[in-house]
């Protein structure tokens, strides 16, 4: 619900103030907006209009519930304004720049302008006008604060409720590096304000956001230094997957500074100086024009009056919820980044639907029952669902693992994108899928049918019985299924088949 750009520029604003961003604001924080008169009592009050809040309000409103939706900054939250939408638009432009052989300063400006136009166009889906007209939701712009266990206050108006949902999201956090706070660093919440190409950019953090934006800005002609304390990027992923992405970043020209320790940061005139030690202990001073911090998220729990509502929370972990997303106040639920370890748009979407069932209809849906995939949108992409091999080992689950290199998938060969693999884990001796990692072009698309298989109990063998358009990348799934099927052809089975063919001539 809040972000650093809002704090810097005022809630309901975004930079630069060009035509595209003014169009965006007209939809997600209209300057002329007047809050409605509150209903006597709402079935549901939703605090925060990011993905979790929007989906909660839309579903409940569509079902006929009286719903109030409160947002202090921009409807659409991180995903629309400073996350998924702008980052993927910049990534696409960067890919085109790489194919074209490089990017000029003008191309960088064009890429950022294109991103702002796309964001403004998509913003209709999250607009205040749409939620009012299409879903019958009362949209309130302003800061909400709980004033008791069954009421909240926004802009002087009291909103009484039967149930409420805290969906205030999270914001970028910064590591405790001396001097960092006063350096003028950027986060994902302000990096998309750039209109001119910086010559040099340092990125702190080798997670998904850091890797995606480091690669994109390098391809757009920025000299990028990616600083990571760990030994490799994407530390959550399997080492073989992370190694492929790390190699791709290096080939694109990103300076990978791994195993480093940042000791001090300071701004000196138009430069930012980072004093660090490399993995071998060598000191270094790195001078850059812009600094992007992509090293963690902090839940937005401050200033909400959660204490008055009887809602327990932790400033680092967020709102305390049970497996049904209910808080310590039985009237109030939470969903999305403010309470969940899965900090993805699609996770917030799924949680919101779960909350509507549980809060309004006495449902008993569990968060732990969700099968959650995710994807890092570097080139190549890395997508995962279910258990990693190390997790299965920790739980005592024995696995059979089937790996198909993308180089053996004909569509990958024709596209010249042969890096990567399809890796599927099944319970030993069966074809029941418990986890999968896909690395390659469109990995996020390929992990979806594997997610469906885990959710429905379909086995890996089922992928061998499908007919695939040829050539497609999905044949990597078919090849993994074929590898499993061949393990079923035991020596005894071979002898029986041989006997059959001898008997039938």
Written description of the protein model:
The protein is of the alpha/beta class and 505 residues long. It folds into three domains: 4-172 and 298-369, 3-Layer(bba) Sandwich (FAD/NAD(P)-binding domain), CATH 3.50.50; 191-295, FAD/NAD(P)-binding domain (3-Layer(bba) Sandwich), CATH 3.50.50.60; 380-490, Enolase-like, domain 1 (2-Layer Sandwich), CATH 3.30.390.30. The protein contains 17 helices and 23 strands. It has helices at 4-9, 19-28, 51-62, 77-81, 84-99, 105-122, 128-135, 208-219, 239-252, 306-309, 345-361, 389-394, 410-415, 443-456, 461-464, 475-487, 491-503; strands spanning 42-47, 67-71, 138-141, 144-148, 151-154, 157-166, 170-172, 200-204, 223-228, 255-258, 261-268, 271-277, 283-288, 290-293, 297-299, 313-314, 318-319, 332-334, 374-376, 381-386, 399-405, 421-427, 433-440. The strands form six sheets. Strands 1, 2, 3, 4, 5, 6 and 18 form a seven-stranded mixed beta sheet that branches. Strands 19-20-23-22-21 form a five-stranded antiparallel beta sheet, sandwiched between helices. Strand 16 (313-314) and strand 17 form a beta hairpin. Helix 5 (84-99) runs antiparallel to helix 6. The radius of gyration is 25 Å and the shape is globular. The N and C termini lie far apart (74 Å).
